[in-house]
Amino acid sequence: MRGAEFAEILRSAIDAAVRPQEWDGVCDRIVASSDFPAFFIFEYDSTNSQVPIMHLSRAIREGGMDLVDDLIGGRAPQAETELYGQLVDLPPYRHSFEHEVLGFGANDALPPNAIRDAILNVTGARWRFGGRLNDFGPVIDIASGHLGGPTAELPADIRANVDVLFSVVGKSLETGRVIRRLVRSYQAMLDFFDTLDFGAAFCDAEGRIVVSNRQFGELAAERDGLTDVGGIAGATHPEDRPRMRGIIHGATRPAARPEDLIMSLRRRSQGVPFVARTLPLRDAQTGVDAPLALLLVFDVERRGILTSEGLSAFGILSPEELAICDMLVQGAGAAEISRSQDTTPGAAAARIDGITAKLACRNRLDLVRLAMMTSAPVRRDPG
To answer: pTM for the complete prediction?
Structure first.
């Protein structure tokens, strides 16, 4: 467990924060790189003496799921749950062997524990080691491995890395817990977003989509300007991809500036570009920035999605100027505006420059951003 192999294990553990279905694969990688007979990553609910979530390597998945069901169902013997509880008194992110936690020598007989004996019998191991992965409860994050061989001692190359592994896994589990809490509330929000005329998705800093609404999926499936490749939000046009990654990543960083979190997405159809905007999120329970960004994608060619209605509240634009703003945010250019106003393209361009100056906007994208901030693009229900 060293070098590139260890780095890959850490990377997969970090990814599992967003994709919890990959935790079993993380356990398999650890086993393959260390020759451990088995490896476990789980949460222990000290209040209810239950294991609500358990991730495990192949040997247990194939031959010990009845024992796992006992742990998850709260049917583990008291000796097992007391062992988990004793980890609270130990430093986090540090590994210890079972006999050390219980205060026995390596060759001493341990107190009876039927589930321990049964699990070791499944994996063919002799020793168990593990550690606590978080600083406080009531949920205790635990990693545990099995070891064969004549002595209760980890190989030197593994011993050098296992505490680092425990630290990374622990941070990833805590991140995953925050994300699960956010997703539960955000899924309810996206149920409402399905009544809106734009795509919405919650993404992590690398663009991995945690949850999205129907419109986002439809836009991505068309691949006209927005893509979803392997669960990662991106742009169809190669030159837009770095910028798309930038606005998503930027929204997860402190002190993100709104003007840095908006862009246009060129379309394969040569239509008016989409407008993509990201918003930073804050975890209401902790008051700290969440490791997610809200990505909104607007197809401004669709009438009614964006209007200049909110801009009228500033009281500085005439009705004619508001009409021009309405056309601008819906993708019209100077030529189209000149035809509607029965004037020349040059005069229309000058009029547009005057409007953007009044609103302290540098360009049309700033104007679109201002329109987005001052309007509620909810689709009107004909019923």
So the answer is: 0.56
What's the distance, Cα to Cα, between the start and end of the chain in Å?
Answer: 62
What whole-number distance in Å separates Cα of residue 90 and Cα of residue 105?
Answer: 17
Centre a 10 Å sphere on the Cβ of residue 339 and count the other Cβ atoms it contains.
Answer: 12
What is the DSSP code string of 321-359? HHHHHHHHHTT--HHHHHHHHTS-HHHHHHHHHHHHHHT
| pLDDT at residue 176, as a whole number | 81
Which of helix, strand or coil describes residue 315?
coil
Contacts of 222 (CB under 8 A, 6+ apart): none
Backbone Cα Rg of the chain: 28
pLDDT at 191 over 70: no
Q: Which residue has the higher pLDDT, 175 or 199?
A: 199
Distances (CA, A) of 325 to 118, 225, 270, 301, 331: 72, 24, 22, 14, 10
- DSSP character at residue 141: E
Query: Which domains does the chain possess?
Result: 3-179 (3.30.450.40), 194-298 (3.30.450.20), 309-373 (1.10.10.10)
- The beta strands (E) that lie in the chain are given as 39-45, 50-56, 96-97, 127-132, 139-147, 199-204, 209-212, 226-229, 232-235, 262-265, 274-282, 289-298
